[in-house]
Hints:
Number of strands: 11
Number of helices: 9
Strand content: 15-25%
Helix content: 10-25%
CATH superfamily: Endonuclease/exonuclease/phosphatase
CATH architecture: 4-Layer Sandwich
Order of helices and strands: HHEHHEHEEEHEEHEHHEEE
Radius of gyration: 20 Å
Structural class: alpha+beta
Number of domains: 1
CATH class: Alpha Beta
CATH topology: Deoxyribonuclease I, Chain A
Amino acid sequence: MRGHRIAVVAGAFVLLASLAPAAQASETFASETASGAGGVRFATYNTSLNRAEQGQLAAELATPDNAQASMIAEVLQRTRPDVVLLNEFDYDQSGAALDGFRDNYLARGQHDAAPIEYPYHYTAPVNTGVPSGHDLNNDGVIGGPDDAFGFGEFPGQYGMVVLSKYPIDTDAVRTFQQFRWQDMPGALLPDNPDTPEPADWYSPDALADLRLSSKSHWDVPIKLGKRTVHLLAAHPTPPSFDGPEDRNGKRNHDEIRFWADYVHPARGGYIYDDVGNRGGLPPGARFVIAGDLNADPLDGDSVDAAANQVLRAHRVIDPRPRSAGGPEASELQGGANETHRGDPGLDTADFSDEEPGNLRVDYVLPSLPLLPKRAGVFWPRAEDELARLTEASDHRLVWTDLLVT
C-alpha cells in the first residue's frame, strides 16, 4: 500500500506540472468540457445573485429577462461544470428562485451558448439574517443584520446552492449550520481591547448561542459511478467590516479551519453536525473543498495563513487554476494590485482597486487520490468577446477537471 501511495502522489505532481498551460489554451472555453478530457469538472462561482429584500430574487428569476442572471447562466453554459457550488444565491424555502434560474436561464441558451441541465441539486437554510437575540457588534442595540448569526438583512440572504449532473446522496448530506464557535478547540475568539479580560468581545450568553458558520458548512456526497466524492461547501465571512477586535477576520480563519480539521483523521473528533452525529470525514474518503473562502494566501485583510489551512490540509492538492485576464486586470487597474505579493494569474475576484485589490479567494481543492487534469479561472482578457460576462459578478468561476480514481 505504501508503494501505491507513492505512485499516486508522484502521478499527482506530474499532472500538476502541466495544468497551467492547459488552462490557458483556450480563451473561449466553449469546447473545454471535462467529459472530453476524461474527467469530472468541479467548479465554484460566487454569483452575486443576492438581493436586498426577501423574495426579490425569486420574483426576478420568474421571467427570462434578467440581464445579470442571463450572464451568470452563460458563464455556466460556457464552462459547463458537472458539479458546481453557487455562493450568494438567496435561499428561499419554496425553491422558487432556484427553479426560475434553472428553467428560465440554464435551460435556455444564452447568446448562442448551449443550454445546460442539472438534474440534481442541494440547498438548505443558512445563518445569514437569522436573529441571534444578542448584541454581537456591541453597539448597545440588539437587532439588524450585524446581530444576526451571519450578516444579512433577512434569513437566507447570500445563500448557497449545489448543482450536479451526478446523483447527490441526500440522505448522507451533513450540515453544520448550528455548530457553535466556542466548541472549536483553540478557537480565535475575539477580544474586547477596552477590557483586561481575554477573548471577551462576546458575552458568555452570546457565546453560548453563537454559531461558527456565517452561512453554513455542508458535506454533500456526489455519487460518481462506484465512487463517492464529498463536496465540502462553505462561504466564510469576509475578514473585514469590523474593528480592532477583528471579529470577522478571526471568524473567517476558524470557518476555514473547520474544513482542515474535518478532513484530518486525528483532528475532527470535536465536530458535530446538525442532527448530533459526531466526528469528521471518514479516513480515506475522497473530497473537494469548494467555495468563496474570502481569504487570499498572501494579500488582503484575512488573518495570516487563514487560506493556507486548507491549501496545506491533509491530502489536499492545490491545482493553482489560472486565467489570462487576471494579470491583465491587475496591471490595468493598479492601486493595491501594485503592492500585492501574490501571482495575479491566480486571482479570482475583482475587488476595489484601492483596497484590497484583486485577490485569490475562490477555491476548488481536491484530495488524493483524485487527480486534477486541468484547472482554470473564467477571466477572459479584455479583447475576448466573453469578457462582457465578468460584469455579472465581482468573482470569477473557478473550475478543476478531476480524474476520479
